[in-house]
Structure formats: structure tokens, C-alpha cells
Amino acid sequence: MKKYYITTPIYYVNDRPHIGHAYTTIATDIVARWKKLQGFDVFFLTGTDEHGAKICQSAQAKQITPKELCDEMSGHFKEAWKLLDIDYSGFIRTTDKIHEETVQMIMQTLYDKQLIYKKKYEGLYCIHCEKFISEKDLDENGCCPDHKKPPKVQSEENYFFKLSSFNEKLIEMIESPDHPQHIEILPETRRNEILGKLKLGLEDISISRAALDWGIPLPFDNSQTVYVWIDALINYVSAIGYKNDKALFEKYWPADIHLMAKDILWFHSVIWPAILMGAGIAVHKKVYAHGFFTINGEKMSKTIGNVITPAELIEKFGVDPARYLAVSLIPFGPDGDISISALAHKYNIDLANNLGNLVSRTNKMAEKYFEGKIPDCMVEDTLTKDVMKIMEEGYGQSLENMQFNRAAEILQNAITLINQQIENDAPWKLAKTDTEKLAKCMYCYFQATDLIALYLIPFMPTISQKIWELNGAAGNVNDTAKKYFTDKILPRGGFSPKGASLGKFEILFPRIDLEKK
Ligand code: ME8
């Protein structure tokens, strides 16, 4: 069985989960579910980033210990992912013992290979980015351009990693698709930015802190702790048994894709592969950095009060619609803007008016004309074949390319096709003139909608099963989907068997009153 290893960033526990974290995590879940349907053995990793000065500061502000803060906040992330039906395979916490041991093991290897040395260093440190920042990158007020806060002068003797010695190699690996250790960076514009920066030359980086206890002690000098970013990146190998489970590690590593936003692309496309190479571990295959979105044109912030939480999204739209809307409103790649009203508008168009209407009208007509059963008739079903054609012309490819809005658009096109067919056939007229034709038409609407349910699984796993059951199809929709996506053959007897009774009707997507939102 082919494997697929996909990851989200591990999120800082100084913040509660919000729509930004949900965005990347839902996207990862959708791709993971899609790959499973394609027959891949998928490992999907997420987790929380729990060390560093920022976490320490947040704990102090709440007058609790850093560990207490981490336990509480990582719990919030787990809860949020449960609410959003995120089906991860592993949840790593950087305070997990196995992670700490793995970090120490890798640090020791780098030290033994003389890739780490000690040096006095003075620099400007932005605690919110958890990174050194050069003077030329500060804004006109002398603040970090991302956080609008002044950095602190930090002066201490630290251990440094010889990042500069990997400069040429990284350029080759990123630039050449034929390189045996090629790392694909997407989207292309961001790849070019990384290459441009790499060509200006790399400096060695500090990888430890002397004045910070809340971290993993260096194995060769326990008066210093590992820099939080180095600690964090190693999660991708510690979580799949690099230190303690060779078989698991060999099964899944190298990662097929690390998913994140553009803010942390440099760490994943430059520093992470250098550490891996230094430690003698194969590098990951792909990095995809999506854009940053604002809410109603403004950066999301507690002060502005425009933070959207997963719970709020679910409360307004329901779990599956929240998943669908979060990733399909704006293209996944460039920066964009999200608002509750734009999400609600899309909900009404795509879900209430298109998909919801389809399921509801077919169910109601079957109730009225066929006693709530799938009509029993002989028919050449071209409608379902047409739906298949639309879906096969780019849906899977769009998901592979992280073009979720495009995949959603293709899905909507296929649903529209069925709705248009219903308009053209006008079954309400056929009911009076040609009941034989009515039966054939109705049969096809159900099969075509069933096929939509199969493709819908990654975005809306629960709604997909609901449609399946409403339409009188038997069993778990996932089982049929796995078979269908392997063979790509429409079953002869249809998905919903002839004569099958429909499930108990319910409105899947009640319309949202936009005035109220
Ligand atoms: O950076 N738009 O954690 P973090 C889009 N711990 N995505 C957003 C977003 C927004 N407005 N806000 C957050 C860290 N995100 C490190 C990662 S990995 C080894 C360590 C998402 O809690 C996006 O995925 O600051 C971004 O990369 C991530 O949250 C940053 O999460």
C-alpha cells in the first residue's frame, strides 16, 4: 500500500484555536481523507508547540506554570479538532517525553558531527515570532513588522548551527526537480522568494538559549535549552518513531507534505532540511505555504475583537458546512479576506440553494410519486456518467494541488448539472403525463446525487453519509467510495438500489437569513 505522510504546523499554546489554525487543519484533513479514498495508507500529524519564551510569558500572565498552561491549551486544540471532525493519526506535544528525547538525540548527532559550535551573540529578538530579527527588517517605529512590537536586545553565549554550510546544497535541492533530495516548494512565487533569499547567502543560526529554562536542555550542555523553533521542527520525526519505532518511521518518513502559512515557510524550507541533512535523515518532499487571511479587512486580533473560533463557526453553520466554507471561500495560496457574512453568503448559494435543494426536492418528489422509494425501472443513466465526467476532469487534481476553492467549484458545477436536468425534465409535469419516464428520471437523479456524496466525503464526511442514507443507499458511504475510487466504475444496479426506501427526511442546510448575520 502506498503511504502518505501529511502534517500541519504544531500550534503555539499561548493562543486558543481560531479560524487561522482551523484553516490549515481542515485543509490537511481534507487532503488526508482524499488520499485515504485513493487507497493510500495515510498518517496525518498535528499537535502543539509548547516551549519557548512566549509560552513562559503567557503562563506568568495567568499566574500558572508553563506546564499547566500547556496542558490546558493543548486540550483546547484537541477539543477544537474533535468538534471539526478532524481525523488525525497523531497529536504531538513538544512536552511529550519521546519528543524531548528525540530532540536531544538529534542535537547530540549534530554536535558530534561538529555542526554545532559556541559563540557570543547579540541581536534583536521578537518574542512573538520567537526569532532574531535584523535591524533592516524593522518597521519605521523600530518594531517587528508582523507584531508591531519592539524587539528586545538579547546578548548571550549560545550554541550555533552551521546553517551556512548547507547553502549551496539547499539551492540545488530546491531548484532542480531531478535532484534525488528535491524539495518542492509551493506556490511557485513563494519558492522563488525562498530561492532569492538563499542566493543572498545564509548565516549560521543560534540554536540554544542560556536564559530560558522552559525548554529542552541541550544534551552536551544542560545550562542551555534548545531554541523553540529547532525543538518544534523535530516534531515531524519524533511523532513517528524516529527514536523509538524504526518500523513506523521507515514506513512514513520522508513526509510527503508539510502544510502551513507563509509566515513559517523559511523554517520549513531552509532550516528544517538543513537539520535533517546534518543529522543524516532524508528530507521531506514538499512544502506548501498558503496565504494569510484577514477578517473583514483587518488582522485577526483579540484587541480588535474579530477573532473567529471554531466553536463560533460551527454554531453558525454546522460542522460540515464550516469545514467546506473555511477552505473554499478564498483561493488557498494567496492572501485573502474572510468574513462571517461572506461565508454565510456562500453557504446559501452552494449549500442551501444548490446541494440542499437537490437533496430536498428529489426526496420530496420520491415521497410524493413513489411512496418514498427509489423507482424500479430499466434505464440508461447518462446523467450520472456526465456527473462523473465533470468530477473526473479536475476535482482530484485540484485537491492534490490544494486548490480547494476550485474543487468546490467543480463539485458545485456537477450539482448544478443535476438541478438543471430536473428543471429540464420538469418531473412535476411528467407526473401527470408520463409516469414511466418520471420513474427513469427520478432514478437517475438519485444515482447522480449518490455519486456527488462520494466526492463530498473529504469536505463533508457526515453530510455525505446523511445524503447516502436519505437516498436509501446501504452501508457506510466510505466503503462504497473506496471501491469506486479504485475501480472508477459506476455499479450496474446503481448506488441506491431499485425499490430501496428513502431515509427519514431532514433539511440538511437551512437557509441563513443574511439580514440577521
Ligand atoms: O507558527 N491565516 O504556530 P502558530 C492563515 N508553533 N493561516 C493562519 C492564520 C491566518 N490569519 N493564523 C494562523 C507557529 N494561521 C509554530 C509552528 S511548526 C514546526 C511550528 C495558521 O500557533 C497557519 O497555518 O503561530 C500558520 O502557519 C499557523 O497557524 C501558525 O501557528
Q: Mean of the pLDDT scores?
A: 96
Ligand identities: ligand ME8
Overall geometry comes to elongated
Strand numbers in spatial order across the main sheet: 3-2-1-12-13-7
According to DSSP, the number of beta strands is 15
Any idea of the CATH class of the domain at 339-516?
Mainly Alpha
The CATH superfamily label of the domain at 339-516 reads Isoleucyl-tRNA Synthetase, Domain 1
Report the portion of residues in β strands. Answer: 15-25%
The biggest sheet, with number of strands, parallel, antiparallel or mixed sense and barrel status, is: 6 strands, parallel
Structural class: alpha/beta
Uncertain stretches: none
Give your account of this protein's structure.
The chain is an alpha/beta fold. It has a domain at 339-516: Isoleucyl-tRNA Synthetase, Domain 1 (Orthogonal Bundle), CATH 1.10.730.10. Helix content is 49%, strand content 15%. It has helices at 19-37, 53-62, 66-83, 97-112, 167-175, 188-199, 228-233, 235-238, 246-252, 265-279, 310-317, 319-328, 340-370, 382-392, 395-400, 404-425, 427-433, 435-456, 461-470, 477-487, and strands at residues 3-12, 41-49, 90-93, 116-126, 131-133, 152-161, 184-186, 205-206, 208-209, 217-218, 221-226, 257-261, 286-290, 293-295, 336-338. Helix 5 (167-175) packs antiparallel against helix 6 (188-199) and helix 13 runs antiparallel to helix 18. Bound molecules: ligand ME8.
